[in-house]
Amino acid sequence: MNSGARIYVVLPQTVETPGGWVIQPPGRQAEQACHVTAKLRHELGLTTMDSKDGELTVPVYEDYTTIILAARDSHEMMHVYNLFVKQKMQRNMTFFSDHNPGAYGSDFRPITALAIYTLPKKTVGILDYLPLWDGHLKGNV
Question: Does residue 131 belong to any structural domain of this protein?
C-alpha cells in the first residue's frame, strides 16, 4: 500500500576516508544504491507478508518509485542528512557503509549512500537542487 511516498537515494561521487578522498566509480555507486534501497525497505517494513492457505507466509513485492540523486561528495550527502534531521525525519532514513578494503583501505567502512522514504513535498529545499544520478562523474572530483 503506497501512500505516494517515494524512496530517495543520495550517492556521493567521492567519499572521505582516513587516507584521503576516494572516487566512487559508476558501477560501485549503482551497487551502493541497490544496497541502501534494500536496507531501507527492510528496516521500514516496506515488504509485506501474505499468507497462502493460512500456512505459508511469503513476502509480497510492492513497487515504490525510487529516485537516485548525485551528491558531489560525502560532505554534501551528510549536509542533506542534517537537513532532514532538522525536519525530524531521521526515522525514515538509513545509510549504507561499504566494506571494501581494496577501495577504502583497511577495514574502514565509509558511508557511501543515504536513502529516505518520504513524500515528494517533504524534500523541497533539501533534495531539489541535487541532479539525478546518471552514472557519470561530474565537476571537480
Answer: no
Inside any domain, residue 141: no
Residues 17, 105 contacting (CB under 8 angstroms): yes
Strands of 1-141, DSSP E: 6-17, 20-23, 48-52, 56-60, 66-73, 93-97, 111-118
Domain boundaries, position 52: 6-123
Reading the block at residue 60, the C-alpha cell is: 509480497
- Cβ atoms < 10 Å from Cβ of 137: 14
For the chain, the domain total comes to 1
Predicted structure pTM score: 0.88
- Tell me if 83 is assigned to some domain: yes
- The pLDDT tens digits for 7-60 are 999 999 999 999 999 999 999 999 999 999 999 998 998 877 666 666 666 677
